[in-house]
Write a structure and sequence with these properties.
285 residues, alpha/beta, Rossmann fold, Pantoate--beta-alanine Ligase, Chain: A,domain 2, 2 domains, three-stranded antiparallel sheet, 8 helices, 35% helix, 19% strand, binds pantoate
């Protein structure tokens, strides 16, 4: 069946209600300019639910004043093809932001301490915008399950918490990071990288590998492990935003690194801000 483009909130709500009568609805919220990572979310959703709805909305409330809202890459016709290929039934791409934020809109979802460190500290207001739009998409779709990538690990944790705290019936499902063959985590923002910058972007996955090697060889000090990550980023001349070891569950700073810890990274390569994260213990291959 081919994918159907929906441009209004009214139609999105009606079609989701109709789809839910046939079985569980899966929601894949995105900001578009889709890549193989998004397609893996759609495929995940298609395996677990009977209808998949993808949303494409470059959400203005999650961008800071000096961020890339205006230049965020867009390609609706390419996105529709990728959604169809991966098994989506509906694509909700609001024809204008008022479909999500109608005139007079004034109510926001304010996340708690999980949203404070890492990207929350470096992008004030970001997770408030994310939670607000995701809450709206959950309420509009009333999907049984919603799928988010672990590349945005903190976002996943914040949304999961929001779902519990606000009693959304939508189950939040996390999906593994999809990487390019050289290790770079897939991201729409990778499109900003110049040919000269692109090879240097592997510094993030190399930094994760360096931390994992350090942990495997017995290093447990949080500062020492973070220094291993920073060294990789500096070697490739990325500008560090943060390199922090945190617990996977609640993103707290552990006294000492352990199996439940993760390394979280954000760095600028030219004007492009890249993020990545990984466990301290490599997954068995
Ligand atoms: O991860 C994203 O692309 C966005 O933050 C999301 C979840 C679609 C909300 O705008």
């Amino acid at each position: 069946m081919s994918v159907a483009l929906i441009e209004t909130a009214r139609e999105f709500k009606d079609l989701c209600a109709e789809a839910r009568r046939d079985g569980p609805l899966g929601l894949v919220p995105t900001m578009g300019f889709l890549h193989v990572g998004h397609q893996s979310l759609i495929r995940f959703a298609a395996q677990r639910t009977s209808t998949v709805a993808v949303t494409i909305f470059v959400n203005p409330t999650q961008f800071g004043p000096n961020e890339d809202l205006a230049r965020y890459p867009r390609d609706l016709s390419g996105d529709l093809k990728k959604c169809e290929e991966a098994g989506a039934r509906y694509v909700f791409a609001p024809r204008n932001p008022e479909e999500i934020y109608p005139p007079g809109f004034q109510t926001y979802v304010d996340p708690g301490p999980l949203a404070a460190p890492l990207c929350g500290a470096h992008r004030p207001g970001h997770f408030r915008g994310v939670c607000t739009v995701v809450a709206k998409l959950f309420a509009m779709s009333r999907a049984e399950q919603a799928f988010f990538g672990e590349k945005d690990y903190q976002q996943l944790a914040v949304i999961r918490r929001m779902g519990r705290d606000l009693d959304f019936s939508t189950e939040v499902v996390g999906c593994p990071i999809v990487r390019e063959t050289d290790g770079l985590a897939m991201s729409s923002r990778n499109a900003y990288l110049t040919p000269d910058e692109r090879p240097r972007a592997t510094a993030l996955s190399l930094a994760i590998a360096a931390v994992q090697d350090g942990y495997a060889s017995g290093v447990r000090g949080v500062a020492s492990l973070e220094a291993l990550a920073r060294a990789q980023l500096e070697r490739a001349q990325l500008r560090l935003d943060y390199a922090e070891i945190r617990t996977a569950q609640d993103l707290a700073v552990p006294g000492e690194a352990n199996r439940e810890s993760r390394i979280f990274l954000a760095a600028f390569l030219g004007k492009t801000r890249l993020i990545d994260n990984g466990p301290l213990v490599r997954a068995e291959s």
